[in-house]
Amino acid sequence: MQFYSEKITILSPDWVRERVEDFLREDLPGGDVTSTAIVDEQLRGTVRIEAVERLVFAGAQVLPVCCGPECRVELLAADGAVVEAGGLIATVQGPARLILARERVTLNLLQRLSGIATLTSRYMGVAAPHGVQVLDTRKTTPGLRLFEKYAVTMGGGRNHRLDL
Known about the structure:
Layout: H1 13-27, H2 33-38, E1 44-50, E2 55-56, H3 63-67, E3 72-75, E4 82-83, E5 88-95, H4 96-127, H5 145-154
Antiparallel strand pairs: 1-5, 2-4, 3-5
């Protein structure tokens, strides 16, 4: 039996930006009230994004968009790279209010994508020696389909059909 499969390795920056803007509108419809109230508008900050446990990183194409153009993102891990516990994935410098407002959406996406990539890599480690391919499912999370399929390829898997 022949399966249709491909590898999504590139996400359109415009598509990512649209999705991230949707997520931010949902997360902060009235803005970040707490940061606005307690963080000086002129304050700039630097954030270190570190791995809590060993993982396969997925999100190099997503992180800079999540942080916004006002921030400087230095990626220290490439998509598909293994990052050991405590390893530095990236640093982000920019307006503190902006970083705080975007933190939850950014971390949620990075954690989800890296989790999928890590688990896929684990499955690949079991399957590959037997000549078995790992393909993802068509049943994805609404609104996250391409993100999730991208994460599967970062873990070494292949994508099954792109639609339901």
